[in-house]
Amino acid sequence: MKVTSRVTAAAVALETTLLCHGVPKANAPALAVRIDDAIKQSGASPALVGVVRGVPTVGMTADELRLLLEVDHVPKLNTANLGVTLHRRSHGATTVAATMELAAAAGVEVFATGGIGGVHKGYGDRLDISADLAALTRFPVAVVASGVKSILDVASTREALETLGVPVVGYRTDSFPAFYVRETDLPVDARFDDEADLAAFVHAELARIGRGVLVCNPCPEAHAFTQAEFDVALAEAERATAGASGRDATPAVLAALHERSGGRTLTTNIELAVSNAALAGRIAAAIASL
Fold it and tell me: Is 15 tagged catalytic?
């Protein structure tokens, strides 16, 4: 696969699904700037990943992002439908899984996102597991995230990561975070308090195993939900979106959470994404100096 790459040595990959689907489009341009600035201030270079007119691109320009945001509907791409989109020369916003595939093809080792997908709770009667988990077993990219999205089955997702052999490490935390919630009763495999040590481990581990590493960075404390607060909000959102399934389930529940929290979940989503970008930038810069 030929990828259009505009990356430098200390690059941090970024997904386009966060901007095209994860936040209201009106908020996307400002969020893109904040994320880019956080990475640049950390000594690294942002590399937005997406598909523009069938061209897989790592290091999209502002004009290319604007094009995706102006299109009425840009499909979310995972590793299953990425190839069809390339074949048909269409636009597409990359999820964690597709971003990892394209980042790896461009030689980018570090990727910042909000939270990974995982095992769904069972909206409907069918098994629903995100392609993000399989991608972590296939592509040597370190994913800096605030754990798994809180609306999913967090415990089953953590168990799946263990079963798949994905190293899960915490940055200044012993607990596996759940997006809006900083701590759960689930452990990480190891804790790192020093960024240089974390970067050295990530670089060596990616080369050793040839697959991904999940670096967990808890949501900034000032914007986090307590578990009790989130449980109440999620119960209300799930009742409001009963019947949603498949790829429609996550955005439907997230939209209901946004409404019922008075916009607080959106603020939290934005702040944790910026925090993760800053940490990813510092890791990428440290790797470049090894």
Answer: yes
